[in-house]
Amino acid sequence: MNKVLTTIKNLWKKFVDNFIKMPLRVMAHPVIGYTEFKEDKKGKLSVAIGMVIIYALITIIRYNADGIIINANDPTKFNSLKLLVYTIMPLIILSVANWSITTLMNGKGTMKQILTMGGYSYFPLIFVSIINLVLSNVLTVSEAQIITLLTVIGVVLMVYMIFMGLVVIHEYGVGKAITTIVLTIIATAVILFIALLIFDLSSQIYGFIYSLYKEIVSRYF
Amino acid sequence: MKKKIYFLSAILVALLLIPNLVVNAASYNYDFFKNPVYSSEGLAYKDTVYFSDTILNSTYDVNTNPLIIRKQKNTYIDLSNIFVDDATSKIYILDGAATDGGKTPIKVKTSAGEEVANISKNSAVYILNNEFKMEFSFDVLRISDDVKDTLLSYYGLPLVDENGNPTDGSIFTKAQIESTKTIEQPDRRCPFFLADIEGSGVYENVAVCYGAEGIFVSGKYIYLADTFNSRIFRINTMYNDIQDNYVVDEVFLTPNDITFYQIAIKEDQSTKSVFLPSKIAVDGDGRVYTIASSTYQGIVEYKPNGEFNRFIGKNLVSKRSWWTFLLTEEQYNKLALNLPSQFTNLVIDDRNLLYATARPDQAATTATEMIKLINTSGKDVLKRNGYVTPDGDINYSTYVKPAVTGSSIFVAIDINKSRIYSAVDQTRGRIFTYDDEGNLLYISGEQGSLSNTLKNPVALSYFTKGEEEYVLVLDKGSKSMLVYETTEFGKIVNAATDLYLNNKIAEAQTKWEQVVKMNSNYELGYVGIGKSILRDANKTSDKDEQLAKYKQAMEMFELGHNKQYYSDAFKQYRNIILKDNFSIIMTGFVVVLVAGVTLAILNKKHRNDVARAAREAVENRE
Questions:
Q1: Measured between CB atoms, does A5 come within 8 Å of chain B?
Q2: Under an 8 A CB cutoff, do B574 and A138 touch?
Q3: Strands, DSSP E only, in chain A?
Q4: What average pLDDT does the structure give for chain B?
Q5: A141 reaches B (C-beta below 8 A)
Q6: CATH topology (fold) of B501-580
Q7: Which of A21, B32, B257, B370 has the largest CB neighbor count within 10 A?
Q8: What's the pLDDT tens digit per position in B127-147?
Q9: Is the separation of the CB atoms in B110 and B209 below 8 Å?
Q10: Residue B567 and residue A141: Cβ atoms within 8 Å?
Q11: Residues whose CB falls within 8 Å of the CB of residue B514, separated by 6 or more in sequence, listed in order
Q12: pLDDT value at residue B22
């Protein structure tokens, strides 16, 4: 019994340390935080993935559970897989784009570090989302500005965390960091373009093979 | 054997009945998420009135009426407008006859003496009673001497002949009378002529209309827009106080404005647009409003004395795409002109506000503001508070070819006494009915070539007979008038809207409850019920009852997706809860605060103690 309690206590301590204390420290003291994150291996990929999954879950819950004052989602069009992809895909694509740019520009960060940093930067959004979920059910329309304000604060903190993360992890100056960010956006556009091209082409190839199959089936069977 | 036959015939009857049950297309409405949802029908097809039948089978004897010269049996009907005079409950149908092939002989006096001229393309007005039977019709208009003089001076014709006698219609030639060219063209038809319409040898000055598109009845006056002849006639039906003495006693000619071609100056017609008054509306003071085709300045307003006053309610031009700054001036000039959309119809309500329908803006990505409520300063003041804006169909394809593509195009509109307005859509032959707030109440009608479908609707009007309210839609394509009756569902919705408009919210609640029972998809109904419950709750003093009612109202507003009213109810609900539990909440808050502070202090003290102990330990070791 005591053993179980100790295990739970340890797990809880681990959770608080990894999921709350560390991100908070990174947010409050980005330079020291990210240095520890990188040098002392305090940033964990598992935690980052956990963060993203938590955020995706909250997004899925919020789709239906948000209060009527901000909720304009059609419950008949609820698709949890789509929401999951929409939260995870930007992180992966942006990380790949950033990695491919920074490796060419003497960035010191590895792919793993970039992904981890991206995952940690979801922390303020998670926090704000939970608060908004509660607030949207207890506020009126005229007070809904608070929710907008909190969302903006969350996004600004996220951007701040990403920016400082890029600076520290790649050991860049501010100017170079901004340049890489602009290039990252261009690289993302290129990736999306290629992805669309592949989707379109593959659907065309599928269409071709399907019509070929139909032709054969109609002729010989 | 006999049994078998009975059985088979029963099956046959059942099979014959099935299509009748199935044929009614399911009506729909749009919900908060702009999805089409099934809804009950508000207007149901009742009857079709074919004009050839009406004219032939009516008890009204055409031959006794001197004001109609058309050969009735070969009538080529080219319906263009409808007007219902609520005071007398008579229906005025306008037959433009712009494509009339038939010719009607009439005895006229020309400059060459007495002759027989063949008139063609003369518009006619049919007046029906509330049984849809023809009571009277006319296509020849007697004109008063004042109007004759106005026309003579406007067209630069001599007012007196060489003997010093006032001129009359005999100055025109037979060719001018028979001409089918518009009146503003150089070798024009004559503005009026001298004819013996009674066959009694008495010649009178008369005028005929060509391609008339607008009709309006106000008291004893009938206003008629003589479209291709660029003028509007005011017909006094009681001229000299004689009953049914139809004489034109005022004429509204081309506005004296730079926009229009002025015959007096003999301008180059290719650079100016000829004034073509289409639909007309007249306010209580006798001001005439008209839509002139191929002009973009807005609705033309005349003073009651026939003078042009101003343009009101101009449609705005949408912005060009941002990338046009890349074009050179030459390329830019080659782009299609960015013109404001044109009005298609207008109607005036009892507050002298104009309800106008406009074509969708070609350059805009989404069709919006196709129905406008124009106030006296020319501003659009239509309320658009519904789940969807009053622009007809919201979900439509723009490219799937077998289906009808594109947005709705409203061609006619009318308003009833509860400020509910219906507009008919030419694209899909549907009638959209909205209330004063802009909520879509119901959609009815469909397109097709059957007797109960609309082919090419051109005009719409409400028609009240006793307690029943009908919607009459004039179909140019099938040369008929379709009569739609308000269904049980439509009646209840209308009644609820009317009660709410008159601030009888509690009575409206029972109606809305009936509506929701008939159609649980009807979100507007839930809002109506919620409003009434919310009002009740504000009145009650018992706290528990109040709480329950606010909760109920919140549920209703949530079902109706109305966040504003939901917030109003929720605010009250929240206040009651907070007030009741104020002591608990405040105590809890203070306890948490005190505990937090104490813990923080203790924690700091503990840490300080540990640090001091460590320091002392280090010092001791040294």
A1: no
A2: yes
A3: none
A4: 86
A5: yes
A6: 1.25.40
A7: B370
A8: 888 888 888 888 888 999 899
A9: no
A10: yes
A11: B492
A12: 42
